[in-house]
Design brief:
By secondary structure, the protein is of the alpha/beta class. It has a single domain (2-122), classed as Barwin-like endoglucanases. The protein contains 5 helices and 6 strands; from the N terminus they run βααβαβββαβα. The longest helix has 7 residues, at 23-29.
């Protein structure tokens, strides 16, 4: 299914941003928030994994229902997972487009990668876990 993805900050992300190595930060930034009706159409339940694919990359995220979202849209908190699927173009502003990225979402049994594995996929050097 096709969706429009927006990204931004969440309260839980802000509470754990001081420790980006924490499970809480990884869980929050590795979550795709979606309207329950869309989840029903996809055949996924809360805390299951979905593959989110954009023209710029793909990641596996945990899906969580959010009744405040409009059907057809998703929300992904800022962080390494969102950065993996947004356009790096900044239009000379120094800030990439974090809003309104078209994505395709499908259920998957694949496990969500760790932040370390995501960075390695981009050619980054692994650092101490």
């Amino acid at each position: 299914m096709k969706f429009l993805m927006n990204t931004g900050r969440t309260v839980n992300q802000g509470a754990s941003v001081e420790n980006k190595r924490s499970a809480a930060y990884n869980d929050e930034t590795g979550t795709c928030f979606m309207h329950l009706f869309d989840m029903m159409e996809l055949g996924v339940d809360d805390r299951e994994n979905v593959r989110v694919t954009s023209p710029f990359g793909e990641v596996v995220l945990m899906v969580v229902s959010d009744e405040h979202l409009k059907p057809g849209t998703i929300f992904v908190p800022y962080g390494p997972y969102a950065n993996h699927i947004i356009d790096g173009e900044t239009h000379s502003t120094g800030m990439p487009d974090f809003k309104s990225t078209e994505v395709t979402i499908e259920p998957t049994d694949e496990a969500r990668k760790s932040v370390y594995d995501l960075m390695a996929d981009l050619g980054g050097l692994p650092y101490d876990h």
